[in-house]
Protein: DNA polymerase III subunit delta
Organism: Anthropogastromicrobium aceti
Amino acid sequence: MEKLRQDIRANQFERVYLLYGEERYLVQMYKNQLKKAIIGDDTMNLNQYTGKGLPVQEVENAVMTMPFFADRRLVLLEDTGLFKSSDEQWSNLVKTIPDSCHVLFVEQEVDKRSRMYKAVKECGYCAEMTHPSMQQRTQWILKGFGRYGLKITQSALDSFLEKTGDDMENIRNEMEKLASFCMGKEGITKEDVDFVCTEQIENRIFDMTQAVAEGKTQYALELYADLLALKEPGMRILFLIARQMNQLLCVKEMEVGRQNKDQIAAALKVRSFVVNKLLGQARQFTIDQLIRCVERCVELEEAVKRGNMNERIAVEMVLLSIANREYHA
C-alpha cells in the first residue's frame, strides 16, 4: 500500500493497477484516491465497466482513445472475474496500454496464477488489501476518536475491538455511532461501548460454543435461533463454529507446548484479553476432543454440500456433538 501512497503523492502512476482483497474498506478507499488523483472530477476522460462478460473490443477502444483536452484518461473495471480466467485477449490488452491511459481493476478475488494477474504484475502494480493488524487497528481507532476530541479507556477499547472485529468498514461505522453518542462527555467508557456497539456474529459464536462447553445446550440453541432470526446463513454459522473450534485447538496445542500468552497472541494475531477467553474455553476440552469437534464440523458441512442434510439441522447436530460427553473433558 505504501507504493500506492507514493504514486499518489508524486502524481506519477503505473499504466495499470489491480486492487483486491478481503479488506473492502481499503479497496474502496484506494480506488477513490487513485481515481481522484489520476483524473480529478473529469468525467469526460473516465470509462467505467462493472461485471463479467465485458466486451474486450469496447474496452480496448476506450483504452486506446486519446484523452479529451487532458493529459490522461482512466478506465475503471470492477468485479470482472477476469483474474480467474486465462483469456489471452485481455492479458494482451494489458500489455499494450498507452502512456496516455491508466487502467484500474477492482476485484473481490484473484488467481495469482492467471494470465491477467501476471500481466498486471509485469506492466503495473497489484495491491492486495488485507485486514490490518491489531496494533494498526488500535492506532486507527485512537486516531479516529481523537478527531472527535474523545479519549477512550483501556477497558472500553478492549471491548470495542472485541465487538467490532477486524473489518474496517464496520469499525468506522461503529466508531461514528459511538462518537456521536459520547459527544460532550469527557471520554468513552466500557459501558458506552456495551450500550451502543453492535456485537459481531463471531462474538455470538463464541458465546454459543461457551454455552455448549458449560453444558448449557438449551441456551446455545436459543442463541442459534437468534442468529437465524437475524438472517445469518446456516452454512456461515457452521463455518464459524468450525473456525472457532479450530482456534481453540490451536490455543490448546500451544499451551500444551508451553507457549506463553504473548506468544499465542502473536501467533493468532489477537490481543491478550482474547487469548485469555480462548484459553478459558479451550481448557474445557482435551486435544483429542477438539480434533474430533473440528472433524465433525467438516463431516456435517460436507453432508450439507452434498444435499444430504439441511443447514439448520447440521448446526444443531454439531452443537449437540460438542456438548456430548463423548467429546467433553
Notes: Strands lie at 16-20, 46-50, 73-78, 101-107, 125-128, 151-152, 187-188.
